[in-house]
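ping. complex inputs:
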Amino acid sequence: MLPFKLPPQILRLVLVAMAIVGSYFAARSFLVPPSFGEYGWYRGDALGEIASRTPVFAGKQACDECHSEILHKLAADKHKTLSCEGCHGVSREHSNNPDVLPVKATGSHCIRCHEANLARPAWLKQIVVKDHYGPKCTECHVPHQPSKTP
Amino acid sequence: MINEVTNLVVEALPQVQGYVYPNEANVHPVWSVLIVIYPYITGLVAGAFIMASLVRVFNVKALAPVYRLSMLTALAFLLCATLPLLCHLGHPERNYEVMMTPHMTSPMAIFGFVYAWYLMAVLLLELWFDFRQDFVRWSKTTPGFQGLIYRVLTLGVTDLSEKSVRLDMKMEWVLSIIGIPSAFLLHGYVGFIFGSIKANPWWGNVLMPIMFILSAIVSGIALCVFNYIVLSWIRRKAVDMRCLDAMAMFLFYALVVDAVIEGLDVFHRGFAAEEGFAVLQTMIREKLFYTLNIGQAGIGTLLPLVMLGSLQLLRKRVPEAARRTMIFFSGAMILFGVLMMRWNVVMGGQFFSKSFRGVMSYKTEFAGQEGWLLAAVIMCLPPIILTVLVKLFLSDSKELQPSEHLPEPSAKT
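pong. complex structure:
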């Protein structure tokens, strides 16, 4: 076939290289997800999968169904723009079945916004936690009505 | 009006030094300790290979006793070079998809091609041609599973005639010559990935690929020194002092050039004092003080320079045992210093915000996906692979030498 004879070791290497390249393409044919490249350099199905995820947040309207008096208090004060679930945790399941408690959010919810930071606007009330009185914010502050005292 | 605004800016800016505005940065570096060990491992591969090439291409006979050990070191580390990157992916379990869908639109993705070229077309081929004669010999004498490995590795070619052995030699020489630019490409490319990020003053620098290559050569030679002394110690064999002195000499010269280029880079940045220089000063004086000034410059560069430099001057007056110890510790310190250099490069570029004013910090986690435990496990893998390779292919100390490509007397031409 060839006009010259390949030395045996080169011939074997060529065959091994062909086998490697061949198995790579064979592997590609079933390892590349079928919807890959449908819209771009990613799996097309990923869009549907992400869209079909069950939402975990219920939204303020769902809270209003049972806790409207707290929502009224909230709406009258400075925290009116905050979402309930921002502090109380995701609550979709709780809104469907009141026996299931909301998934409690971790960390301190107050200092997430009120810890002093120059990057925050001056109108936002800020404290340096280590210099501020007390371990528990709610001893002196009412989160639903920040202008009131308990 | 202009003067008032200028005065306001001049007064206001120092007041906000160190603060990160919410819209300009991630809270902490996203390139973790895994991305620190990725260029470290790649550099060790390139350096070890370049040192081996001194034997084949530049015919440095004194280094022959470590030729095969350096080549196998390069292989063991290369096999693990992509692991930090693959573990760093959001979904590490899907890492094969990166390899199944290669593309040319991102510098990081092109590294896959550079890596594949270097592993498949250079390192494995050169090793195969160097070991082919031994594979054939061992496949005839070794029984059991180990013999089967050797038989598979011969690829069924048992021809050891003069003509075929001469071809092996020629191929190996050609591959070494292709290998040197390829090794430079492998690690220069890693430097380019950082150096091409022009918005970041710590990274965006044309000297970056060159500094990466030089530090790679230094760390690679240091690793070979380390491995050679440790292997001789484990086997209770005497170290070939001629070889060790030659390695120390090359290590010293490479370290001098590396230190000069890195010093030149600092000098250039200081003299040019471009926009981001103030934050670079903060990095050097505060955030990276220990890893840069003490780790990289002190332990990793100055001390080895003094030790190896004094050995160059006083070699004949220093007893062998002391020389060996000094070279060993210089190598170990350089290995540590280059790891610090990778840390400084990768972390330094992420410690300041996009306005060059905010400063961030990074606390390495322990057991998570980006934790230092995983990084330590990845760093332990190459020595384990190397141990297996040395057991399989360098079981006799004579086999540390490169193949001399002498034909079998009985083989027919």
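Residues 8-51 of chain A form one domain.
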